[in-house]
């Protein structure tokens, strides 16, 4: 009987090896099928998105032809949004410029007041020289007859 056990054991090992080989083959085939399915799904998603965008554009164009007022309203709203974005951006840049100018070189002195321009040196003589006096208004007796008041 020991002979039969050994033959049965060999048969059992052979069947186990065959089952293991088949299982490995099936797992490899399953992995390949999963990868192929993922690639096909990604390609279908891209195609679907492209087709959906094309259909959406065509539907929008058809709606624009059927309802021109709605198309004008949509264009105006898009222009408003665009202008709003531009205004917000310009305001942001302005604030950034103000902040930068304040940080880069402020015009205030250490006490917090504005710097004053240096005053010109004054002469000791409080009376101005005649060369510095400029006549602003005529007295009516000037040389221009058109500017002379009637008497």
Plain-language structure description:
The chain has 151 residues and is mainly alpha-helical. Among the domains are: 1-66; 68-99. The chain contains two helices and no strands. The protein has helices spanning 2-66, 68-104. Helix 1 crosses helix 2. The protein is elongated and about 150 Å long.
Produce the secondary structure layout.
Elements: H1 2-66, H2 68-104
Helix pairs in contact: 1-2
Number of beta strands:
0
Individual helix count: 2
Poorly predicted sequence stretches spanning 5 or more consecutive residues:
none
Order of helices and strands: HH
Structural class, judged by helices and strands?
mainly alpha
Amino- and carboxy-terminal Cα gap: 160 Å
Beta fraction: under 5%
Radius of gyration: 47 Å
Mean of the pLDDT scores? Answer: 80
Biggest pleated sheet: none
- What percent of residues adopt helix (DSSP H or I)? 55-70%
Q: Choose one word for the global shape.
A: elongated
Top keywords for this entry?
151 residues; mainly alpha; elongated
In a nutshell, what does this entry contain?
With 151 residues, the protein is mainly alpha-helical.
């Amino acid at each position: 009987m020991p002979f039969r056990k050994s033959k049965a054991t060999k048969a059992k090992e052979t069947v186990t090896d065959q089952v293991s080989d088949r299982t490995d083959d099936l797992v490899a085939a399953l992995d390949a099928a999963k990868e192929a399915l993922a690639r096909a799904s990604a390609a279908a998603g891209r195609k679907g998105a492209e087709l959906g965008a094309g259909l959406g554009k065509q539907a929008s164009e058809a709606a624009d032809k059927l309802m021109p007022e709605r198309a004008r309203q949509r264009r105006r709203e898009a222009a408003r949004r665009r202008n709003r974005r531009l205004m917000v951006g310009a305001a942001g840049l302005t604030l950034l410029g103000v902040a930068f100018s304040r940080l880069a070189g402020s015009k205030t002195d250490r006490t917090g007041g504005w710097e004053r321009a240096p005053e010109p040196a004054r002469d000791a003589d409080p009376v101005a020289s005649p060369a510095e006096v400029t006549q602003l208004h005529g007295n009516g007796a000037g040389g221009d007859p058109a500017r002379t008041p009637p008497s």
